[in-house]
Design a protein that fits this description.
- Keywords: Membrane, Signal-anchor, Transmembrane, Transmembrane helix.
- This protein is an alpha/beta fold.
- Helix content is 30%, strand content 18%.
- The chain has one domain: SGNH hydrolase (Rossmann fold).
- The chain contains nine helices and 17 strands.
- The strands form five sheets. The chain has a seven-stranded mixed sheet, with helices on both faces. A four-stranded mixed sheet has the order 7-8-10-11. A two-stranded antiparallel sheet has the order 1-2.
- Strand 10 and strand 11 form a beta hairpin.
- Helix 1 runs antiparallel to helix 2 and helix 6 runs parallel beside helix 7.
- The structure holds 2-acetamido-2-deoxy-beta-D-glucopyranose (5 copies).
């Protein structure tokens, strides 16, 4: 598995300790209530009074625990206020605020007929029996995502180069986009990986060409976006490798010549993927042993942002950054994976993520247009969409990656909706 299980930044942990505090509080109140009830039942008024206050406290505790749809501040998308008169639906509505509704016309493809859906994500082929998880459509609050029209999209993408950069969740989106587009291609031999490479977890570069449309869809694995480096001399023994947070990944030169450029990063910025493996941060020649991961992540994003500003011609290239894709690990150690049959009705606080907040804060300050694909809120509900044990390694449950077809198709429908007028 290629994404860390104990996503330590997951807001869920905070939420749980918070839960515990509130539950303790409620517990105390309840103890008090029972005492009153046992010793003073004759004093009916007191009993009723304490019952009323108990209900009031419970109501407050409930509201505190489950605030109804917290107002999220969005820096992207413009609300459909009267000030906006653009014809583009994206600008009239925040497409990332909405809900999942059942739709029998989904899924949009069959992963078993798509050679680029890797076996590990093809849940149905790996024995998942309920297909309900693939039959949900994302419905933004104030608009609709245009229905996926493969012919139109393929024509729009003719002659273009689309580049995905990031971790395995970018690879999933890359696979999803290829599978979506293949439904509009008659001869599936005309779609091929240019180096005849197989899709594997560690592969650095994959490029699929749609010959008829002179279209390339590429994936670059760069889980941190910045450059891994060797250990400077004189470093303490525990330092096994470093990340140059002031320098973008060397393969970034290959990303420049593109029309659509989609990034993600986040799942690897955890102690278990860094410090516990002896990987520390470095700026120039200087080791930053004490630098917290959150700080390093922010600095790496600023490195990325200035690379985009100085290197990418945004007149040609549309740049996107996808925010944190929620995982649904549960249990005390955050290592239990129970895939539900239906989406959660609540987001349980997972619609926010410090990773996403950092990304939005950095992008907001950029001098060139970059679109944030804020997939965190929509993913929060989709506890039913993960691979679980229906992967190529059923012994290792997976509540980080998503089944294909599934949630990543929605990311692509939204991506494509930005490209179509
Ligand atoms: C936004 O658009 C929806 C439907 O198009 C409409 O019902 C709603 O009142 C609009 N909101 C504002 C603030 O204009
Ligand atoms: C739309 O906005 C532009 C300026 O942003 C303005 O010139 C134009 O008149 C507006 N159109 C309508 C129909 O309001
Ligand atoms: C997907 O395709 C495979 C192979 O062609 C077929 O066996 C399977 O029934 C299809 N699944 C669905 C849900 O249509
Ligand atoms: C190629 O396309 C045909 C017809 O759409 C389909 O039946 C077949 O499964 C595809 N083959 C592969 C390897 O995807
Ligand atoms: C992008 O377009 C604008 C306006 O057309 C122009 O001023 C600017 O120089 C262009 N930038 C590049 C890098 O071509």
């Amino acid at each position: 598995m290629d994404v860390v299980r104990n996503v330590n930044w997951d807001s869920f942990a905070q939420f749980r300790s918070f839960c515990k505090r509130v539950m303790n509080f409620v517990n105390e109140i309840m103890k008090g209530y029972w005492k009153v009830w046992i010793f003073r039942t004759s004093h009916g008024l007191v009993a009723i009074g304490s019952l009323v206050s108990f209900i009031v406290v419970m109501a407050f505790a409930y509201l505190y625990l489950f605030p109804s749809v917290p107002p999220v501040v969005h820096s992207y998308g413009i609300s459909n206020s009267s000030s906006s008169n653009s014809s583009s639906y994206v600008e009239k509505c925040n497409v990332f605020e909405g809900s999942w509704i059942p739709d029998e016309s989904y899924p949009l493809y069959n992963a078993s007929q798509c050679p680029f859906a890797e076996r590990g994500f093809n849940c149905l082929a790996n024995g998942r029996e309920d297909m309900g998880y693939a039959k949900w459509r994302w419905k933004p609050k104030n608009c609709d995502i245009p229905r996926f029209d493969v012919r139109k999209v393929l024509e729009r993408l003719r002659g273009k180069r689309v580049v995905f950069v990031g971790d395995s969740l970018s690879r999933t989106q890359w696979e999803s986009l290829i599978c979506l587009l293949m439904t509009g291609v008659e001869d599936n031999k005309s779609v091929y990986e240019v180096n005849r490479n197989k899709i594997t977890k560690k592969i650095r570069f994959l490029s699929v060409r749609f010959r008829t449309f002179d279209l390339r869809i590429d994936f670059y694995r760069s889980v941190f976006l910045v450059q891994p480096a060797s250990v400077p001399t004189g470093a303490p023994k525990r330092v096994k490798s470093t990340l140059r947070i002031d320098k973008l990944d060397d393969i970034s030169t290959d990303w420049i010549d593109s029309d659509i450029l989609i990034f993600n990063s986040g799942h690897w910025w955890t102690p278990s993927k860094l410090f516990e493996l002896g990987c520390y941060f470095q700026v120039g020649k200087s080791l930053k042993l004490g630098m917290p991961i959150t700080t390093a992540f922010k600095k790496a994003l600023y490195t990325w942002a200035s690379w985009v500003e100085t290197t990418i011609n945004t007149n040609r290239t549309s740049v996107f950054f996808r925010t944190f894709e929620p995982s649904h690990w549960s249990g005390r150690h955050h290592n239990s994976c129970k895939v539900s049959r239906r989406p959660w009705l609540r987001s349980w606080g997972m619609d926010r993520s410090p990773v996403s907040d950092t990304i939005m804060n950095v992008v907001r300050k950029m001098a060139v247009p970059v679109t944030i694909m804020h997939v965190t809120p929509m993913g929060a509900f989709r506890s039913d969409g993960h691979v679980g044990t229906w992967s190529d390694k059923p012994s290792v449950p997976d509540c980080s990656h998503w089944c294909l077809p599934g949630v990543p198709d929605t990311w692509n429908e939204i991506l494509l909706s930005y490209l179509l007028p």
